[in-house]
Amino acid sequence: MTSPRMRYPDEVVTRAKAEFDLVGAIGAHTRLKKAGALMSGRCPNPAHRDRGASFVMNPSSNLYHCYSTGCELNERWFSPVDWMMHFCGAADFNEAMEMLGGKRESLSAPVRQKMSDEAKARQAARDEEAKKSAAKSQLKARQIFAAGVSAKGTIAETYMVEGRDLAGFNVDVPCLRFTADLPYWEEVEKDVFRIVHSGPAMLAAFQDRCGHFSAVHMTWLLPDGSGKAVIEALIDGKAEKLPAKKIRGPFLGCSIRLTPPAPTMYVGEGIETVGEITRLGKAGWVAGTLGNLTGRFHPDAPRTPHPDDALRLLPALVPDWSSLRMHVPAECSKEILIADGDTKDLASLRAYLDMTTRRIRYEGRSAGQLWPDGRQDLNDYGRQVRKADTAEHCKAMNESVHRPAEASSSNGESIQGGAGND
């Protein structure tokens, strides 16, 4: 049985959280690298075996979070107190505070005021540093996008139309560009960055609600455009396969605008996913990530047990209104969320989309969800359907060509099963 939570002055708790070297503590478990104002890396949770960089840490607020829906660290943003309980063996809040050096004795008013002022000063310094980092990242993103050319007639168009089987997809839009040789920088050792790959890439611009450029989405491609590039590098002396996609710059609250605004808008995580819709002439914008598609849920809202893991809870259905999610235009009266059915944790994904559906409706728009059949994303599903249709068509053609003549026309020409009608 855990001991009852003792009363710590708020200033003591705030100071203990702020002064703890969370970056260093996390760095002992996983390698973090800068990602704009945040730091990212593989999740240090031993139960989370995903090798993707789904774990993020915010140096400004000294909080951490995992974006993988299948991880218990996805439930909210966690503090150094939580870190002590998750990774350092603290049994409860009291023990965690003791490990952080907190003291329970009452403090005099002058001491409390001094601690409060110091905490505010530290937070202001962190916020200023985060602001400078975001501005620097945005400037670099703008330079990358500005150096690109129209995607029309390039390998980027080949990738979308042929590599992803998106016939009818329009790459000749302002938000898409192409560059023939984009360096891929990676932190190969702590604070050591090197170019581990360089090659053709499709560029996509994130725009904020005012239409201003904010970040760039980069997809490295194979030289012939048949698919995404395969990027491998030695990271800390070990060979690793790296993602072919990256985002540079502050993108939360922004969107990749593949089409003009419309009353009905389809929104999804990936360019290829939303492209499955826009190639049909429908309107669609891209979020880039699940977090930007949905926003966060409220940390204090009630939650239900996860159906597949009794030790975890599903995301709450109440949105955190302070969290950012992708911008949709004022012209939109109906927003349809495209689900990526290939996610590992469908139950959590459904909860996130249900939460976002509520948020959309509260904001005055009607909302819906589009789920492809099977455990696949919409583009994979569309390609599968088109492949099956093509196979069926070829089968019918083959049977028609080899069917014996059953009759003859009056001018002596044979009539063979309507092969000429296809």
From TrEMBL:
Domain DUF7146: 136-258
Pfam families linked: DUF7146 (PF23639), Zn_ribbon_DnaG (PF01807)
Source organism superkingdom: Bacteria
GO biological process, one term: DNA replication
GO MF annotations, alphabetized: DNA binding; DNA-directed RNA polymerase activity; zinc ion binding
Residue intervals of the Zinc finger CHC2-type domain: 10-100
Disordered as annotated region, ranges: 398-422
InterPro entries per UniProt: DNA_primase_Znf_CHC2, DUF7146, Znf_CHC2
Name this polypeptide is given: Uncharacterized protein
Species name: Cohaesibacter celericrescens
